[in-house]
Design goal:
The complex is a heterodimer of chains A (about 160) and B (about 290). Helices cover about 35% and strands about 15% of the residues of chain A. Chain A is an alpha+beta fold. Chain A has 2 domains: about 80 residues, Beta-grasp domain (Ubiquitin-like (UB roll)), CATH 3.10.20; about 70 residues, DNA polymerase, domain 1 (Orthogonal Bundle), CATH 1.10.150.120. Chain A is globular, with a radius of gyration of 16 Å. Chain A starts with a strand and ends with a helix. Chain B has 3 domains: about 45 residues, Uridine Diphospho-n-acetylenolpyruvylglucosamine Reductase, domain 2 (2-Layer Sandwich); about 110 residues, Uridine Diphospho-n-acetylenolpyruvylglucosamine Reductase, domain 3, CATH 3.30.465; about 110 residues, 2-Layer Sandwich (Enolase-like, domain 1). Chain B is built from 12 helices and 14 strands. In chain B, a hairpin with a 5-residue loop joins strand 13 and strand 14. The chains are: A alpha+beta (about 160), B alpha+beta (about 290). At the A-B interface, strand 4 of A face helix 2 and helix 6 of B.
């Protein structure tokens, strides 16, 4: 069985591993590196639970092979809080406004919401729902997720100089 | 839900990629964005022995305008197409069609060439490319040829692409002057596979009559409705006229039934979308004609 080396940066830290080419990036993150914040839902690109940021772009990590991420810069849900004792405004508002119940979809949704607010600092409800269309949540009906994103946008924008 | 074993190749140049394809033939599959290929592999519906990853081939990734023609490298991302200012200005139909592909996470990774080569029946870009009369450069190690979009798509996930060939470039000519456009689609939810889709371009003459019209509908492959287009030429735009033309375009359309929709539903939806597409394209053409006259 031939394996290939993978070196990459995740949340500002360097990681290295040795993988079979068929290993999905999600499995590499979870099983090899212990970064289990990224969840595995459908494994065919539909549910969005495995959404991460690859070189600044939101992607499904179940539709990438770990070898393809060699040299890349990744961000996962473990990397969005500013410090081990603080929450990101999105996390804060999801907590406060019950933007999650079982929490399975939450890591992917947080990554999507963060990318949305970077691109559109004041998104309309329609824009939020359009961005969320790639992330399935079976508990909340999305209502509180949308509300949490709207509130987080206000917090982030108010904090700007 | 894990792919079967394969050997991974990551060429850095197009020549290397073509040599690998020549050597491995149908044992290999080119990997572009992987948004359709990897799900098929995860389900083990396909088990290629070799994957040739094109993401490291920098020369295949570009989007530029060249003498009024849009040139897209095969691995230009769908999101790039959706957001490029020159595309919005000159080929708004392409931006609109791209915005219907899956979700932002899919479009960030999915490529224009990949979607065309995969030729999934409900895919947006094949319909848009046929409407815009795009052509594709198909290269193997030993030859290069061009295919018009309309001739390229043969059937359900089948194109004229040979196992040793890569679709390397997409050329999209400028749409006819002062033409209006429309892209219409029905799916259960935004981002789901389309149950039916229609794209149209309409240009009007100085008297407001239809100079020419184009219409493409989704089916097993994108279908240009030449008869309906002929029927519209020289006529004055009206809802009745467009309804007639849309009926002609959709009535004999070959459609499949599956768990999502029956063939009858798809034909009916195509007829409705075709009418809406003509109406919107004609309205936009009229705006253009008026705008230019002022």
């Amino acid at each position: 069985m031939s394996t290939r080396p993978v070196r990459l940066t995740i949340n500002g830290r360097e990681y290295a591993g040795q993988v079979e080419p068929r290993k999905l990036l999600t499995d590499f993150l979870r099983d090899d590196l212990g970064l289990t914040g990224t969840h595995v839902g459908c494994e065919h690109g539909v549910c969005g639970a495995c959404t991460i940021s690859l070189n600044g772009e939101l992607v499904r990590s179940c539709l990438l092979f770990a070898v393809q991420a060699n040299g890349a810069e990744l961000k996962t849900v473990e990397g969005i809080a500013p410090s081990p004792t603080e929450l990101h405004p999105l996390q804060e508002k999801f907590w406060e406004l019950h933007g999650l119940q079982c929490g399975f979809c939450t890591p992917g949704i947080l990554l999507t919401a963060e990318a949305l607010l970077n691109e559109i600092p004041n998104p309309s409800e329609t824009e939020i729902r359009e961005w969320l269309s790639g992330n399935l949540c079976r508990c909340t009906g999305y209502q509180n997720i949308v509300a949490a994103i709207q509130e987080a946008a206000k917090t982030i924008n108010n904090a700007k100089p | 839900m894990k792919p079967a074993k394969f050997d991974y190749h990551d060429p850095r140049t197009l020549d290397e990629a073509l040599s690998l394809l020549a050597q491995l033939g149908d044992q290999a599959r080119p990997l572009a964005g992987g948004q359709s290929l990897v799900p098929l592999m995860n389900f083990r519906l396909i088990r290629p022995a070799h994957l040739i990853d094109l993401n490291g081939v920098a020369e295949l990734s570009y989007l530029k305008m060249d003498n009024g023609t849009l040139r897209l490298g095969a691995t230009a991302r769908q999101r790039e197409l959706e957001r490029a200012a020159i595309v919005a200005q000159h080929w708004p139909l392409l931006c609109e069609a791209a915005s219907y592909i899956g979700h932002v996470q899919i479009r960030n990774r999915g490529t224009v060439g990949g979607s065309l080569a995969h030729a999934f029946p409900s895919a947006e870009l094949p319909v848009a490319m046929v409407t815009l009369d795009a052509s594709f450069a198909l290269r193997s190690k030993t030859r290069e040829r061009r295919a018009r979009a309309e001739d390229f798509f043969l059937s359900y996930m089948t194109t004229t692409l040979q196992p040793d060939e890569l679709l390397t470039e997409i050329s999209v000519p400028a749409p006819p002057a002062k033409s209006g456009w429309s892209y219409q689609e029905v799916s259960c939810r935004h981002g789901d596979f389309a149950l039916a889709g229609a794209a149209s371009l309409v240009a009007l003459d100085a008297n407001g009559a239809i100079q020419h019209a184009r219409l493409t509908l989704t089916g097993a492959t994108p279908i240009r409705a030449h008869q309906a287009e002929e029927f519209l030429r020289g006529e004055r735009p009206s809802e009745t006229l467009f309804r007639d033309a849309a009926q002609r375009a959709a009535e004999n359309l070959e459609q499949d039934s599956d768990i999502h929709a029956s063939a009858e539903y798809r034909r009916e939806a195509c007829a409705v979308l075709a009418r809406r597409a003509f109406m919107q394209a004609a309205a936009r053409a009229a705006q253009q004609t008026r705008g230019k006259a002022q």
